[in-house]
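Extended Data, record DUF2264 domain-containing protein
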Amino acid sequence: MSNFANTTPFASNPISNKSELAQYLIGLLDPLASHTSPGGARVHLGFTGTHYDEAAAQLEGFSRPIWGLASLLAGGGSYPGVERWVRGFANGTNPDHEEFWGNMRNKDQRMVECSAIGFALAVAREHIWDPLPAEGKRHLEDWLGGMNDKEMPNTNWLWFRVFANLGLSKVGSSRFDAKRMKADLDHLDTFYIGDGWSRDGPEGVVQLDYYSSSFAIQYAQLVYSKLAQKEDPERCEEFRNRARKFALDFVHYFDEEGRAIPFGRSLTYRAAMSSFWGALAFADVELPAPLTWGAVKGLQLRNLRFWARQAGAYNVDGTFTIGYCYPNHNMTENYNSPGSPYWFCKSFITLALPESHPFWASPEEPYPAALLTTVKPLYKPLHIATNLGGHTYILSSGQQCSYPVKQSAAKYGKFAYSSAFGYSVPSGNLTLEELAADSALALSEDDGETWKVRRDTREARIEDGKWLHSMWYPWKDVSVETWLVPPTAEVPLWHLRIHRIKSGRKLLSAEGGWAIYGQGPDDRALEPSTGEAFGTLENGSEARAASKAGVSGIAELRQNSSRRGRAMRTDANTNLMVPRAVLPTLMDEHQPGQGDIWLVSAVFGLPSRNGENGAAPGWEAEWKKRPVIPQEIAVLMA
């Protein structure tokens, strides 16, 4: 039977040039028409809730597609449906209209949506602002300017007010507050920590995720550097300099097939993860070697092509689902409405560029060869990035969200995050299958009734550029010291995790490798296999799973270990990439008072490539190899 369900309306689009990218965007905009209110001001895409009100949720559905629409119009394109948004601006900002969005309060979600609106006024004035009647213009500028005296979160949100004022300035509005915009920019600059990186907040905030780049800060800095060059040249040049430094780190979060490494929160924004590359082009940044415009073009367009092929990212009418590679509310945040995924449209910013721009004029190039087969310490985010052996991933320590976020331990606390295998989020905490502890060490003090994983990481550092070293404390009388050692040229498909546990209580432990697609060639659950065919393997203190997605495995390196391997079938819909996954896991029991407990886990991963059915031939020989414990750590173990 043909796989009729695993297709999208966009998969046949090559997305290789500007007109094809515009076609993709139009294919996303068109389905919104039937979900748009009569007055045009609200887009209702579903009935799920958020921590903010329904009017703000429907404003999200209206505003976020504008990132793409405004770019299309700014670059000389046209779209008949633009009149829906012009009507929506007039009615949504009119206090006497039934579709009025409501005035902004302190820390209001409506503030977030002002960034796309300000961008649209700045780059597509003649299409968005000029057609409005005088009353509509007055209502829109009053509504946007209404945020200038409101309290905002001390985060990337301040950029949203900057963009509102930027838009107001570009249309000559008296509601433009230059003093407010400068104060916001000056404060945002205090988030900068060097090497191109900014925190998403003041000192003490430690997560450095996609909000520090494509979702917000880097993207906003680059757009500002283009639009405010005449008024604020010194700051704009500083923003471009930051981007040049940042790009040489950020490129390591992408693989040769265009996938970005899933890490952190808000991943339902999907292709927005790659929008930094388009913003580099929009800002006309002079690229640092080895990046070229052909390479940047490839990074951006390959990511968009990847998402164009993901059937689970779309409803049957072509609107976005909430989730990652398929509908999955379990991995989302309480601020994700059905309209939230349209932050995706930030990645269409290159539509604002002329065909003569080097981004479009340069032939697309593959991932830079100089950056392949590398291991690179990334000191600001406390990551070690690698693509040795054809597997792109990061080792991670030292990050956690500075405020409560659903599934934060999974989003920030895992030991590793892969572009191919993604990561998993728990569906519960009463079984290991629910916990789905891939790339994590799970501990239980109650005989497996409940489990804890690393969430609050302390004393994290990269030691001599060689490995990540950190401490974490699941209970007051339990400490875990963890070393994460990247792969080497001798064993490119393995990385090491070494743990020293000091415990005053009895514990069960379960450590997971990579979660991998868990179905066989007949699309039924993988079965045990000792040969080279697809299947699972449980052999003493090692476990493995092989499927069309590649191979994942984990093995204990200490001799005479009591750990036992298990190829565990995790609960459905826990992994971000695939809804049915198998997780190779090592399990053990530890008694109190036995001194230091050492666990030495070698983790194996080889994804399939470019649609191949399984890992490349020869992986079995690599599986038989084992990494060596670094001498400095071996001395401690002795």
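Summary. The chain has two domains: 18-370, 373-637.
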